[in-house]
Amino acid sequence: MKIVSQKTLLEAAHNLMFDIDEVELEVLTEEYADLLEAIEQMKSIPNIDHVKPMVFPYELVTDYLREDVVASCLSQEEALKNASKVEDGQIVIPKVVR
Fold first, then answer.
1. Model pTM above 0.70
2. I need a surface site. Which of 1, 18, 34, 88 has the fewest CB within 10 A?
């Protein structure tokens, strides 16, 4: 079984610019261990490759959703006119993840 070390979690937190303390790190390490153990147990289920993956564990009725209606929208010029920095027709924002 693959093990997610505290070092790996600290590196991920650093790269995602999250602050994580020792208590949170310990809890997260335990949660990853539980998750990986559950995945290993699922791998041992016979004929699991023939089971269709579930996106959501419950059947949802979605007949209450409205039909999409085409309506007028902003032009690109209107959408970009208040942006502080635009490049190639897109709004440029500061990078927040390494």
1. no
2. 88
